[in-house]
Design a protein that fits this description.
- This protein has about 475 residues and is α+β, with helices and mostly antiparallel strands.
- It has 3 domains: about 100 residues, Phox-like domain (PX Domain), CATH 3.30.1520; about 90 residues, Phosphorylase Kinase, domain 1; about 200 residues, Transferase(Phosphotransferase) domain 1 (Transferase(Phosphotransferase), domain 1, Orthogonal Bundle).
- Strands 5-6-7-9-8 form a 5-stranded antiparallel sheet, covered by helices on one side.
- Strand 5 and strand 6 form a beta hairpin.
- Helix 10 packs antiparallel against helix 11.
- The longest helix has about 40 residues.
- It is globular.
- The N and C termini lie far apart (about 85 Å).
Length: about 475
């Protein structure tokens, strides 16, 4: 009776597993996760996700009759639908709550504690820095933590410290630019930059406080609003000029989105440019990996810019890409640019380049000016590693899709029926072939107009051709 309280929900998805920054044996292959949980576990997960402000389809509790088999089967279907809804949400599926629920063995580490320990070790060599408070869940990355710190020599100023666990794709250099302080070890990196009280561009679009949880800020913002055309043109031009400067130097960004753009006095500044050297994955990687035309770091930056431009225009990121239809907007010129990047035709035939996008009129100058030569060499190496990884993942995804289509076709009712008919024909043909001579049961009927066969004995019959 006790076992009937346990629900086994199987959810199939593509996962690149990493354990403490190292690729696991199961990495880079399709896998099934079998989640065996009680209903109370689902209830705890749902309570943790209530900060999102989104109504999730968790089946209700039932105190009487909850051991009935039909009820258990119905609830299991409801719990599967609940898992589908949270894993298909682009932001909720990145939550540590969800990942621990689905795969607790690989997400058991307390990265906040690990980050605090390593930050303390870093600051022993530079005691002028002091941690004021951890900014819990401010960002979406599980292995990246933020802290509000101060410089003892400037006690009134506040700075943002970010700690990130390094991956196998990271580059081996302690030099990161442009930062107030940076340090790296074999397992992680520590970075200090000025803290913007107004937060990122996404914080300003959603009209939220930057220190709050990213789920609370971005899942269901109540006051989110797109920017005015003048701001879109200004920020768009500055971001494109920054990307062009990187590309002209043979470099890339790869992590462009509204949370990685800081705005101060009308000037955009890109942050987390070091992510390419640290080897951390892009938040949009699941989207552009499925598009085979996006196979270079430059095309990744253009695709990410399209997402960012959509969010600046409509006040929210697109639900999915490619887009067949675009919502009505007051800026027709912006919609035409979005169509050239995010439409189905653009994703199939190719997207415009950054120099082509810069031709939008009435925009201002760039905010980035110089790339150090040492940083240039490191980013070039990281660029090649990222593109190689992208090609491998696209190849794997393409093979998986072909296999899925073949399995679906082979298992269809029409195909099963065709194979049964073919098997009967083969069996009947074999029976005819193996039947003894003179057996009338298996011999085909003789046509009345058939010619008389030649005699078995006597003069041979010659045939003229």
């Amino acid at each position: 009776m006790e076992t009937e309280k346990i629900f086994s929900v199987i959810y199939n998805f593509f996962l690149r597993k990493e354990r403490d920054g190292k690729k696991s044996v199961e990495a880079d292959r399709m896998c099934f996760l079998q989640v065996i949980r009680r209903y109370s576990d689902f209830d705890i997960l749902n309570s943790s996700l209530m900060v999102c402000g989104i109504s999730l389809p968790l089946p209700p509790k039932k105190l009487i009759g909850n051991m009935d088999r039909e009820f258990i089967a119905e609830r299991q279907r409801g719990l599967q639908a609940y898992l589908d809804s949270i894993t298909q949400h682009p932001l909720i599926c990145t939550s540590l709550f969800v990942k621990k629920f689905l795969d607790p063995n690989n997400y058991s580490a307390n990265y906040t504690e690990i980050a605090l320990q390593q930050v303390s070790m870093f600051f022993r060599s530079d005691p002028k820095w002091e941690v004021l408070e951890p900014l819990k869940d401010m960002g979406w990355r599980i292995r990246k933590k933020y802290f509000l710190i101060k410089n003892k020599e400037q006690p009134k100023e506040r700075f943002l410290l970010s700690w990130v666990s390094r991956t196998p794709d990271s580059s081996g250099t302690p030099y990161l630019s442009p930062l107030l302080f940076s340090s790296t070890s074999e397992s992680s990196a520590l970075l200090v930059r000025p803290f913007g009280e107004r937060g990122s561009l996404r914080d300003q679009i959603c009209k939220v406080k930057p220190k709050e949880s990213h789920l609370k800020k971005y899942c269901n913002p109540k006051k989110s609003q797109g920017l005015e055309l003048e701001q879109i043109q200004l920020f768009g031009r500055q971001i494109l000029e920054s990307l062009k400067l990187l590309h002209d130097s043979g470099l890339f960004f790869g992590h462009l989105h509204a949370s990685n753009v800081m705005v101060d006095d009308g000037v955009c500044r890109l942050v987390d440019v070091e992510n390419g050297m640290l080897g951390v994955p892009s938040v949009l990687r699941p989207a552009f990996t499925q598009l085979r035309k996006i196979n270079t770091t430059e095309s990744i930056d253009v695709f990410c810019f399209g997402h960012l431009l959509y969010e600046m225009t409509y006040g929210r990121p697109p639900d999915s890409v490619p887009l067949d239809q675009f919502p009505s907007a007051p800026h027709a010129a912006v919609v035409s640019v979005l169509q050239s990047i995010l439409s189905a035709d653009a994703c199939k035939s190719g997207m415009p380049t950054v120099p082509a996008l810069i031709q939008t009129p009435n925009l201002t100058e760039s905010v980035l000016r110089q790339i150090p030569s040492r940083l240039k060499e490191v980013l070039k190496s990281a660029k090649g590693s990222l593109e190689k990884r992208l090609h491998e993942e696209q190849r794997m995804l393409h093979q998986h899709r072909r296999l899925t289509r073949a399995q679906s076709h082979y298992g269809s009712e029409e195909e099963k029926k065709r194979r049964k008919i073919l098997a009967r024909k083969v069996k009947h043909g074999a029976a005819v072939f193996l039947s003894p001579p003179g057996s009338g049961a298996s011999s085909p009927p003789t046509c009345p107009s058939s010619p008389t066969p030649p005699p078995a004995t006597g003069t041979p019959v010659s045939l003229s051709l």
